[in-house]
Design brief:
By secondary structure, the protein is an alpha+beta fold. The chain folds into four domains: about 120 residues; about 100 residues, Calcium-transporting ATPase, cytoplasmic transduction domain A; about 290 residues, HAD superfamily/HAD-like (Rossmann fold), CATH 3.40.50.1000; about 120 residues, Calcium-transporting ATPase, cytoplasmic domain N (3-Layer(aba) Sandwich), CATH 3.40.1110. It is elongated and about 125 Å long. The N terminus is likely disordered. The chain contains 22 helices and 22 strands. Helix 3 packs antiparallel against helix 4, helix 4 runs antiparallel to helix 5 and helix 9 packs antiparallel against helix 20.
């Protein structure tokens, strides 16, 4: 440590880089140690045989060579044999495990030991590649549990705060939640009105004012000052805990997606095994008839084993997961992060795309869209009054109003006695006139007469001396790429575009019409979004949900493909999703569908090519024309070709917007 402290800035970075590389190497070594050992021994054994270092045993059994390759194959063979026995115990005998074991045993029987090792080595490596992403997702979920509130501050009788485990807090306990900290347990607000960031539950960026006596649910965050709460339920029954259960229940309803290889080998394995048996037994049966040639058991057994070795689907074992992982690597370069190859595959089947509104389709940043006034006040005076009252507020609406007033270079009037009240602010203007600035609810509670408003904007009302003076209308702007994204989704085969939001109907409907959505629902809770996703799936639609908030987590998990917006998205949203958009650019989502279709096409091409070559060699082998070298090419050679084709087609895939530029 003392040596590193004297390094230059550049050298320090080098140390970090070397440390990162070393850590990555250790992870790879731990994960693939069996395959590395077998692979190294296979290469060494091949070299020893090539240079005739193994004893020449032309007329004897090559014991030393046999023992070498048996030791080489054991590291990968033992786990495969365990899996094989487990599937046999379940009554599943005709699977890829059986085929691999028979192919390896057959290769060893005809003294082609390197081929026997390679069969199980390729298979073991391919299987580990396929499961790597799933292991990473499980680790992320374990880390997610640790991000829930882990402390609650109980107010003791003498007024001091005591930090306790939230799970030990019982109903009726008084808690203090400091500004910026998340409420750990549902409770009733005590004391005075407080603004809370409710985005964890509602998904909306506008804070809400809670008054004493109202229930504040876990996951919310007090903004300006600490909140005193009297808990109403235990941690396990609070909102954040229920949210986690919704995620777990939705995850448990997801059907297990079989890998493409297992779907192929479900019929491929029994067919190949039956054909290999027929190659051996049919000539034997024919030899029993009078006048038939005598049965040469060694010849036909060798042909059957060549057939079996040739049939080994190593090309598929390696190229199929490689195709998906190469695509996932390409996707990550333009901001798409898939957690599992199954979800990349599912994107091509999506026909219904469902969006959250705030922070997903919109920027979450408000702007003034218009000002109305009545009586003797003009628009600038209404805006100036609002800005003067809101000048010290951190509320997003207030900040937008103040920014607009600065842009217009308005001189703000002097206001005094600024006080936060439910649904707005109370203040005094020169001459002791009362000012109210806030929502229509504030106006109604103070009996201020107003006309009805149905515009798709958020309204901040102003009353002076008990009379309505005017309103400022604000809009959460739509992301500039949202309309083009919807258009490209339709071109990619998505038939239905929905919006699900907790916002007002007018605001949601306005956004839906602006981007060209087919349907929308407003004023929804997280459980409502999850329910609607389930209803769409029950109607036969393949649904992708795009969201960014904790409140979107149940819907993200319930959807066939959950897509989290990562730029400003919450940890829980990204943990619950199957795919994460690394930034905020929605335009890459159609690229995910295009990439899914392309990887599927490459996989099919590899399957057709591999099966075509193997079928030809197997037929020639059964006829005694193809040798074991041809069988080796049909296995290892085809594997290399499919890998190269996969790399050429998928490693350098670019997003559509890059190709257009």
């Amino acid at each position: 440590m003392s040596h590193c402290s004297n390094c230059s800035h550049h050298e320090a970075h080098n140390h970090e880089s070397i440390s990162g590389v070393s850590g990555g190497f250790k992870i790879i070594l731990r994960r693939y140690i069996r395959e590395i050992v077998s692979g190294v021994m296979l290469v060494i054994g091949t070299l020893l045989k090539h240079f005739h270092i193994f004893p020449d045993t032309e007329n004897e059994f090559p014991l030393i060579e046999f023992v070498w390759y048996m030791v080489a194959v054991l590291p990968v063979a033992i786990p495969i044999m365990i899996d094989t026995i487990q599937t046999w115990r379940k009554g599943d005998f005709l699977n890829e495990f059986t085929l691999m074991v028979l192919a390896a045993v057959g290769a060893f029987y005809i003294k082609e030991f390197p081929e026997g090792v390679a069969v199980l080595l390729f298979y073991s490596f391919g299987e580990k590649m396929e499961h790597s992403a799933s292991d990473d997702v499980r680790e992320r979920i374990r880390r997610l549990i640790g991000r829930l509130p882990d402390k609650a501050f109980v107010v003791e009788d003498d007024g001091r705060l005591k930090a306790v485990d939230p799970q030990s807090v019982m109903p009726g306990t008084i808690l203090m939640v400091r500004p910026g900290e998340r409420v750990p347990v549902d409770g009733i607000l005590q004391g005075s009105p407080i603004d809370f960031d409710t985005s964890a539950i509602t998904g909306e960026s506008v804070p809400r004012t809670y008054v004493p006596g109202e229930e504040v649910v876990s996951g919310m965050i007090p903004i300006d000052r600490g909140a005193m709460l009297k808990t109403v339920r235990a941690f396990a029954d609070s909102s954040m805990s229920r949210m986690m259960r919704l995620i777990e229940e939705a995850a448990s309803k997801k059907s297990h997606t079989e890998s493409m290889l297992r779907r192929i080998t479900r019929w491929y394995t029994p067919v190949v095994m039956c054909l290999a048996l027929l190659i051996f037994f049919v000539p034997y049966i024919v030899s029993l008839f009078p006048g038939a040639s005598p049965f040469e058991a060694t010849v036909w057994l060798r042909r059957a084993l060549v057939f079996l070795v040739c049939s080994c689907p190593c090309a598929l074992v390696v190229s199929i997961p490689l195709s998906y992982f190469a695509s996932m690597g390409s996707a990550s370069r333009f901001g798409l992060l898939f957690k599992d190859s199954a979800h990349l595959d599912s994107m091509r089947r999506v026909d219904t795309m469902v969006f959250d509104k705030t922070g997903t389709l919109t920027t979450g940043r408000f702007s003034v869209k218009g000002i109305s006034s009545s009586g003797s006040f003009n628009a600038d005076q209404i805006l100036g009054l609002c800005a003067a009252v809101d000048s010290e507020s951190s509320h997003p609406l207030a900040q937008a109003i103040v920014e607009e007033a600065k842009h217009r270079q308005l001189v703000l009037p002097d206001v005094t006695d600024i006080t936060s009240v439910p649904h707005g602010v109370h203040a005094s203007l020169a001459g002791n006139e009362e000012i109210l600035v806030g929502s229509r609810r504030l106006m109604e509670e103070n009996k201020v007469a107003m006309s009805e408003h149905k515009e798709p904007y958020t309204e901040v009302c102003v009353a002076i001396g008990g009379k309505y003076a005017g309103s400022v209308f604000l809009e959460d702007s739509v992301k500039p790429e949202a309309v083009a994204t919807v258009d490209n989704l339709r071109k990619s085969g998505v038939r239905h575009i929905w919006i699900l939001s907790g916002d007002r109907e007018e605001a949601v409907g306005g956004i839906a019409r602006q981007i060209g959505a087919d349907s929308w629902r407003s004023q929804l809770l997280p459980s409502d979004k999850q329910r609607i996703i389930g209803e769409l799936q029950s109607d036969g639609y393949v649904v992708a949900f795009v969201g960014d908030g904790v409140n979107d987590a149940p819907a993200l998990t319930a959807a066939d493909v959950g897509v989290a917006i990562g730029g400003h998205g919450t940890d829980m949203a990204m943990e619950s999703a199957d795919m994460v958009v690394a930034g905020d650019d929605l335009s890459v989502i159609p690229d995910a569908i295009r990439l899914s279709e392309k990887v599927r096409r490459v996989v099919v091409e590899n399957i057709v090519f591999a099966f075509g070559v193997k079928a030809a060699v197997m037929i020639l082998g059964a006829l005694g024309i193809a040798t074991l070298w041809a069988a080796v090419f049909a296995d290892t050679g085809v594997t290399v070709i499919t890998i190269l084709w996969t790399i050429i087609c998928l490693v350098r895939v670019k997003p559509r917007k890059t190709e257009r530029s």
